[in-house]
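User: Could you go from structure to sequence for me? I need the amino acid at each position, not a summary. Structure tokens:
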């Protein structure tokens, strides 16, 4: 059992990051589906690495440069997986008129105007938000909450939306392990491991953040259903980026008025 869980963890690590992992892993379709339970844990690992990078960079270069290096490291560690999903989603949702056309645009490796604008605005937004959050000396807390929790919330969309990536005229040469809903125990583990960082917040702040995230999830689900009647891997990446930004915004507002 331990060997299988070890295998699943490293499959999740390989899917969500560019961190080196063991060469001999079982890449079966069933294992690729079940490794999704470890996606929030990968968020915890990434946040720990980024906090270490930030602390060293802040000591050497100061806060603005440290935040830039933190963001650069995040993109390098994940291979810009979620940012790519955000760009493809914005290009597809706003560049096509019909479901099939939207999906075809999303599968195109080229980036368009909508995707470029989304990436620039999100990256600038993160830089501004993280700079403001650092003024409260709580950047480490923000990262350990945002990275696991945004990934946990994004993956929950597989529970109540159909997988539609196979539709359209353009086909990708990779299988998507997120296509099937999770079992109840699997889902509970994802939510608990993703939300564990909330125990570091006062209870009122934690409850407000949970409420905001579930409202955001409802809006995102309606947005996906309106445009493509379901979800794809790219859309889940976009959901993660949006939820991460919402966490930063909500925590900043609460730090300013309640902390």
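Assistant: Here is the amino acid at each position, in order:
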């Amino acid at each position: 059992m331990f060997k299988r869980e070890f295998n699943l963890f490293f499959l999740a690590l390989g899917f969500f990051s560019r961190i080196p992992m063991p060469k001999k892993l079982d890449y079966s379709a069933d294992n690729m589906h079940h490794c999704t339970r470890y996606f929030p844990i990968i968020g915890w690992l990434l946040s720990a690495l980024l906090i270490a990078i930030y602390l060293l960079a802040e000591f050497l270069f100061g806060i603005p440069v440290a935040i830039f290096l933190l963001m650069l490291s995040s993109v390098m560690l994940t291979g810009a997986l979620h940012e790519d999903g955000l760009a493809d989603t914005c290009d597809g949702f706003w560049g096509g008129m019909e479901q099939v056309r939207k999906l075809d645009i999303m599968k195109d490796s080229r980036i368009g105007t909508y995707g470029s604008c989304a990436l620039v605005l999100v990256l600038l937004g993160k830089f501004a938000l993280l700079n403001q959050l650092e003024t409260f000396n709580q950047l480490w807390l923000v990262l350990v909450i945002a990275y696991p929790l945004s990934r946990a919330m994004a993956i929950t969309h597989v529970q109540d939306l159909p997988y539609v990536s196979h539709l359209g005229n353009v086909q990708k040469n990779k299988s998507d392990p997120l296509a099937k809903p999770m079992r109840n125990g699997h889902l509970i583990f994802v939510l608990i491991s993703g939300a564990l960082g909330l125990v570091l917040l006062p209870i009122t702040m934690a409850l407000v953040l949970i409420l905001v995230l579930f409202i955001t999830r409802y809006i995102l689900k309606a947005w996906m259903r309106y445009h493509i009647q379901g979800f794809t891997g790219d859309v889940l990446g976009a959901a993660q980026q949006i939820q991460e930004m919402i966490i930063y915004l909500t925590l900043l507002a609460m730090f300013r008025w309640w902390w």
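One structural detail worth keeping in mind: The CA atoms of residues 110 and 133 lie 34 Å apart.
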